[in-house]
Amino acid sequence: MRIWRAVLILFFTLLVRDSFLTALVPGWRPELLLLITLLYGIRWGQKKGALLGAIAGGIEDLFLGRYLGLHLFGYLLAGVAAGWTGRRFFRENPLILIGLVFALTLVHQAFMYLLLSSFGFPASPVKLLTRVAWPLAFSNAVFAPFLYQPVAAIPLERKVSINI
Amino acid sequence: MGWLHRHRWVLMATVLLGLLLWTIGATRGPRTSSTWPESLLGDLLSPLQGGIARAAWAVQKVWQGAAQLTNLRAENETLRKQMEELSAVKRELAEKELENQRLRQLLNFATSSGYPTVMAAVTGRSADSWFNQIAINRGARDGIAPNMVVVTSQGVVGRVIRVTERTAAVLLLTDPESGIGAMVQRSRDTGVVAGELGSTSLMMKFFSREADVAPGDVIMSSGLNSYYPKGLIIGEVVKVGRSDYGLVKFAQIKPSVDLNRLEEVLVITRGPGS
User: How many CB atoms lie within 10 A of CB B98?
Assistant: First the structure.
């Protein structure tokens, strides 16, 4: 049942993002679910990162209603990549965490560009980098140290109790 | 002499008593002047009395103040609460006034445009960096259908792309996948307006290389697109240039509607092409 709690948390996060944060700061596009996926992957590894990414991406796709599966795929891979890099770097260092999130966001956006372009989505790589990827990577990196601990506490698996 | 000596205390007491009674009798009733001992005593003691009196008053005031402090604090708290409540009411009134203005403008537009419309509130906005769409609180049961045009009194917002029973998703003009047939209001030159990735402005590509367009020109829908009726305001030209080796003339357009601050919109329920 713990996975449903994670689903609820992500669902609520998306609601807050789309209905509250975007109204609070007009024009702001905080991709919170991507950031959560990256942080979770960095903390808990590839498998859990991929699972949470798939859930988060699936919810995002349902909300958007276009290119269904795009975010599921993108976030799943982002979770795997975050888990892979997280195990190879000292993740408790805030500076390394910031750097990882920054780089992983750029990689994710590049992947999204390749995927969307292959479906005929009109976007130029220069505009992607200057208007979307770079600002997003920057904002994700800034928020990463503050959200790392809360995100790491998101439950995905049933707690195992051992009675001796 | 022996008798006087023996009764001297009695005699002195009698004389003193007599003097006292006389004095009492002599000084009965109001007097306009005082005797010199009275004056001397009064003059000497007056400053001292004044000082003591002032000290007494001061102590009394402190005492009274201490006694009233509790009441004052309570009163202060009550007044502060009242002030906060009044401020909240004032803010609420200002918000209602703004909402009232927006709704009145929408109503005026709905009446003057002649289109059948449904008013809707914006309930959410896709915060994804790649796509620009909003959610509204009207759906199929309110007569909303895909491809219906969404506007405000300032101009075009976008079109409905997805409908549920109670909600609808609206593709904004600024979405890279949106497209609207448009024309320059002044010169009537036509083209297509589309959104750009990560930008709040629009890009109009003209069909003619010699299109007559200049900054400040108003751009409106041309009606050459099956979704949008003719004559709806899209925005204003801010920059003109050429792209694709100078083959295509384009104009950068600032949307007439602030698409980042939408709160209420009108859905034109006349179906596309009807």
Answer: 11
Residues B101 and B148 in one domain: no
Closest by Cα among A146, A157, A159 to A36? A146
Whether residue B200 is contained in a domain is answered as yes
> Who contacts B263 (Cβ-Cβ below 8 Å, separation ≥6)?
B99, B102, B121, B122
Taking alpha carbons only, the member of A128, A155, A143 closest to residue A48 is A155
Residues B123 and B229 in one domain: yes
The alpha carbon of residue A41 is apart from the nearest alpha carbon of chain B, in Å, by: 20
Nearest CA to CA, how far is A3 from chain B (Å)? 24
From A153's Cα to the closest Cα of chain B, the distance in A is 24
- Identify the band that residue A162 occupies on the pLDDT scale cut at 50, 70 and 90: low
Higher pLDDT, A21 or B228: B228
Q: Which domains does chain A have, with CATH numbers?
A: 2-152 (1.10.1760)
The whole-chain average pLDDT of chain A stands at: 83
Q: Which of residues 38-57 of A touch B (CB under 8 A)?
A: none
Torsion from C-alpha of B215, B216, B221, B225, nearest 10 degrees: 10
Write out the residue range of the structural domain in which residue B154 sits.
117-268
Distance CA A103, CA A95 (A): 12
The confidence score (pLDDT) of residue A82 equals: 93
pTM higher than 0.80: no
Q: Do B176 and A27 touch (CB under 8 A)?
A: no
| Predicted complex: ipTM over 0.85 | no
The proportion of chain B whose per-residue pLDDT surpasses 70, expressed as a percent, equals: 85
